[in-house]
Amino acid sequence: MKEQFADLVILGGGSGGYSCALRAAELGLSVVLIEKDKLGGTCLHRGCIPTKALLHVADVADAARSGTHVGVMSRFDGIDMAGVHQYKDSVVTKLYKGLQGLVKSRKVKLVQGTGRFVGGRSVDVDGVRYTGKNVVLATGSHARTLPGLEVGGRVKTSDQVLESHQLPSSVVVLGGGVIGAEFASVWNSFGAEVTVVEALPRLLPSEDESSSRLLERAFRRRGIGVKTGVRFDHAVEKSDGVVVFLQSGEQLEADLLLVAVGRGPNTTDQGYEDAGLRLDHGFVVTDERLRTNLDGVRAVGDIVPGLQLAHRGFQQGIFVAEDIAGLDPRPIDETGIPRVTYCEPEVASVGLTEAAAREKFGQVQTLTYDLAGNGKSQILGTAGAVTLVKSGPKGTSGPVVGVHIVGSRAGEMIGEAQLVYNWGAEAEDVAPLVHAHPTQNEALGEALMALAGKALHAHG
After folding, report:
1. pTM
2. 346: β partners
3. Is 79 annotated as a binding residue?
4. % of the chain residues with pLDDT over 90
């Protein structure tokens, strides 16, 4: 077998893999990047970018539908799915070509083919063995389904839905997490009748309870059906739709059933177990420096337990490259990674939920600033709130340990919030800083002023 050598061999060209490759090359390491599909992985081709393109189309549809409310004589005549896909694919293609150019310009050796980790520090691809001084595993994730629920026809995961040119008139979304909430929002804006079924007691179970309540209220106002605390039993596909049976005995009929019950790690048939790599429920076990139990082998992204977010994998890739190069970077605080659900309204957060903060600190103070007091929110016609969680009881000093935002464009506000959390800032540290008026971001400033005891645009 032919063998090639490099400082770093990376298996997987998604967010974690390609960021690791680019940063390592920037630091002077020779890099081999192996990808069986397209560079950019799930995020670029089947996740973040195409879904957010659909969400932008949904925003445009909503704006057209509501134009007369602001004096614009617009109207909504329907959705041209061929045009939607052309727009979505054009965005993906432009970014894909740009990423290819970046990798080429950094002199990263890109190997197209199915790689298999064979132990040591080697990956085999089509009869060639690539051996590195270090190996990074970044094989990503796949859309999960439930036992006994066969995907196909009118039962689809997010992967299949993104390629479908048919616009359903009614949809049951199985799963009220990030993926389910985003697609429910899109289809509602496109004019479909949507019902979300979530087995746990509330939507977005990993978010703060206050955010879940606000989102559920907003969904109901939009006409999106929400059934929480109800488990799926089985589904029966018909020629003209699908019937979804719930364990409560209720039946739901729709054109389409979207299975949005999360993503599983791509660790099967990769050679990991044969090589002695330690796994836990399919995930690769690592320490805080993303080292596995095998010497010289790291793992990043969705195969590592924790938040399955593209920007998490991206930062992990950079961290690993710098660590291998001897820069000794600080380990990533998982709690300090911002989280955004891009439905309408958006839900964004960083740090601890109120429940987690109480468990960690005992006593905490929370403050909620309603967006009704924010001028730009009124201009946009959005409702929601900024909720801050501070360690320690009211009247004592303590850092802000959680920020939770619900409202249009909340994802654009979480940047400052993650600095507040990650730098351990107290409300008094940030309250004197000037926020431009009128902006959505001003709401975060007002919330911090209120927490510091200087509330102006808030009652009480």
Report:
1. 0.96
2. 407
3. no
4. 97
